[in-house]
Amino acid sequence: MGSTADKISGIANEVVGKAKQGLGHAIDNKEMQAEGLVQESTGEAQQAKGKAKDAVKTIVDRA
């Protein structure tokens, strides 16, 4: 997966994760809140992976 795809997937996972957390809180569903937190964290990691790929590409391109 390319850096842009990683970042897009990461943003999508963060948004869905936050929505799950909010809905879980609204309906008092702790499991849904936990799932949302995990999905949000996954999204953050995906975005970091995409940014790292960009950074490596920039370094390689300059060499």
The succession of helices and strands, N to C, reads: HH
Q: Point out poorly predicted stretches.
A: none
Into which percent range does the helicity of residues fall? over 70%
Largest sheet: none
In words, what does this structure look like?
- By secondary structure, the protein is mainly α.
- It is 90% helix and 0% strand.
- The chain has two helices and no strands.
- It is rod-shaped, with a radius of gyration of 15 Å.
Brief account:
The chain is mainly α.
Secondary-structure blueprint:
Elements: H1 3-26, H2 30-62
Helix pairs in contact: 1-2
Structural key phrases:
63 residues, mainly alpha, 2 helices, 90% helix
